[in-house]
Amino acid sequence: MKKKGIILLVVVYLSFIALGLPDALLGSAWNLIRTDLNVSLGTLGLMTVTIYIMSILSTLNAPRLLRLIQTKKITFISIFFTGSALVLMSQVTSFYQMLFFALPLGVGAGAIDVSLNHYLAKNYQAKHMNFLHSFYGIGVTLGPSIMAVTLKNDAWRIGYIVVGLILVGISLCVLFSFKLWHQEHSVDQKEEHTHIPLKEILKVKGSKVSIIIFLLYVHVESLSGVWIASYFFIIKEVSYSIAALFTTIYFLSLTLGRLLSAYLSQRIKPKRLVVVGSIFILVGGSLLLINPFSGLWSYVFVTALIGFGCAPIYPNMMFLNNDYFKRNQISRIMSLQMAIGYMGFGLLTPLAGLMFEKISISLYPWLLTMMGLCLLIMVIQYFKNEVITDL
Fold first, then answer.
1. Mean pLDDT over residues 61-65, rounded?
2. For residue 372, which of 267, 282, 313, 328 is within the disulfide window of CB 3.0 to 4.6 Å?
3. Residues 6 or more apart from 41 whose CB is under 8 A from it?
4. Beta strand segments in the chain, E
């Protein structure tokens, strides 16, 4: 690969770090934020719903946007406004102010996700797609890591400022790299991002099952990313900083797993990686449920196992769109996969939070195990004609 191509890949990977950085901030710091702003545990669900409604709207409209604006410009604008919003959120004095500044977080995330996934799927190999999502994992690991440091001084606001400024810096890297991006001609953009009615695209073989897989997977990922810190804080009675560290462990294992998946994707079929990952999630949830071990290190192991299980699913499912769908269908399919997937985070996970508040967060392992089982069943259904022979 030429030097310019390598530099561009670095910039694209940095952009996915920017996508991941804000995602786990709220969950890792919520135990302190809710005290500071004087709101309940379940109010986190309202924040999540708001962010991800905006993400869904942005994602669904991304193909229309890509017909008009090149990927590089969408990426720059989205990251810049996301970083600015985080800095502003650090200055709030009430929950509803925080809710207002959270709106651009969802819009930016949806636009970056669709545009860069489509760009990588079109221009690069499967290993690059796995590496791309590895860098999302780096971002989503760094976020709570930075927050964990600031939480030692009960300073969640400083965590938001630091992450916001990092995002602004990454947006400037994207701006300065504009000349390196593949040229996207208006004619090609209109052909590749043709608007296909919802009824028509859902008739395409495999589209419905793939969308359900994304819904279940994103819900499983968000259950761990958002609620695992609160579970260990409330049920296992660890400190604020140790609870936040479990979020870091989860996302670190997710990141390392995706780096490993990028390496293995050159030797193992993406379908197999998706199936094995689903099995790991189910095993990890079951171990957390039955609790056969005792001690902090056993919880670290289970948390890491869940993270490794989540690692290969999203990027490999995204790349497999090239094999399952036509060129002019891919961006529309991707937008639906991501939009419905966001509902796993923005609807199912907040509902889980409501259940935890009204009943008990001790139900967390039960829900994680049940969702892991459903995910495995749907993955096998999606690959039913190939899975038996491939494995």
1. 77
2. 282
3. 30, 34, 230, 353, 356, 357
4. none
